[in-house]
Amino acid sequence: MAERTVVGIFQSMDDAEEAVQSLRSLGWDRNISILAREEDGRRTEGGMQGRRDAGEQDLSEGVATGGALGGLAGLAASAGLMTIPGVGPVLAAGPIATTLTGVVTGGLAGGLIDYGIPREEGQRYEEEVRRGRILAMVRTDDQRDSDAERILRENGAEAVKTH
């Protein structure tokens, strides 16, 4: 079985959260990552506050420090706010947070190469995050990748792709 990375782009953190809840219910607990731009660089006493979608909603306080979002709560232990060259402040939750820690050159696109995502696609995803969209990724085997794709689509993901 080959390992794959299924990626979906969300307009809304609510939709991404629903997708995470669905994926977690099917056993993908430790293999889900979320990337979202922290638009204003605003920090609050409880954690991070940023955009929820391309509109004006907030990510919800406390994600980076405690997991205020229900579906993302399982990812919050590994969540962190980091600055990615070329993108700016980004909330990274799940295994991708560790991968991106210390990224200096190559930016987000360079960090995604470890997930089997070609540099050109990584640059596209980097641009989507820069524009305020939410990137959800799940690592799975080639026997379950179509299930992960379906769940992301059912929850509003655009441009779902397996790498």
Topology:
Blueprint: E1 3-10, H1 13-25, E2 32-37, E3 43-44, E4 47-48, E5 80-84, E6 88-93, H2 95-100, H3 107-112, H4 119-130, E7 134-141, H5 145-154, E8 158-162
Antiparallel strand pairs: 1-7, 1-8, 2-6, 2-7, 3-4, 5-6
Description:
The chain has 163 residues and is an alpha+beta fold. It has one domain (3-162). Helix content is 29%, strand content 26%. The chain contains five helices and eight strands. A hairpin with a 2-residue loop joins strand 3 (43-44) and strand 4. The radius of gyration is 14 Å and the shape is globular. The model is unreliable at 40-71 (pLDDT under 50).
Number of domains: 1
| Rg, Å, rounded | 14 Å
**pLDDT averaged residue by residue:** 75
Helix/strand-derived category reads: alpha+beta
Strand content: 25-35%
In short, what is this structure?
By secondary structure, the chain is an alpha+beta fold.
Which key phrases capture this entry?
163 residues, alpha+beta, 6-stranded antiparallel β-sheet, two-stranded antiparallel sheet
